[in-house]
Amino acid sequence: MRAVLQRVSSAKVTANKTHEASIGHGLLVLLGITQSDTDEDLDWLLNKIINMRIFNDEAAVMNKSVLDVAGELLVISQFTLYAQTKKGNRPSYIRAAGHEIAVPLYEQFLQKAAQLMGKPVQSGIFGADMQIDLINDGPVTIIIDSKNKDL
Fold it and tell me: CA-CA distances (angstroms) from residue 81 to 1, 27, 69, 97, 107?
């Protein structure tokens, strides 16, 4: 699993021109799922996300997690995080998981995130055409990959 975290002052997603979800202060999480991802990848990545100390403390040092600041999560599925660009100019998405793997893991990610956060987690619609508006706070953008923990 791969995630791009963006610390935001606010973020909103519109999916299929009808569904809207929004958050205030917190994290926008772009989530990519690959074919070999498991529950273990999900648990590792989710724990990393909610405990990542990228929010400022009283001394303006990034020392607090989204839990510490009572922030919110907006999670967006994004298969393009597994784009391969080695050959040519058209990305290949062959490493992205198909619906049969990705949908259950995405839904499980949302459920576990809500449990760990102790409040609802906002999300887009899996596989939908989505537009995202955000105010990146900092900016702070972090990439995390459960298969490449050195990132």
Answer: 9, 17, 28, 11, 18
Helix (H) or strand (E) holding 15: strand 2-15
- pLDDT band per the 50, 70, 90 thresholds, residue 105: very high
Query: DSSP class of residue 110?
Result: H
Q: Which CATH class is domain 2-145?
A: alpha beta
Active site residues: 78-80
Q: What is the pLDDT of residues 66-88, one digit of tens each?
A: 999 999 999 999 999 999 999 99
Q: Which residues contact 119 (CB under 8 A, 6 or more apart)?
A: 72
Sequence ranges of the domains in the chain: 2-145
3-state SS class at 74:
strand
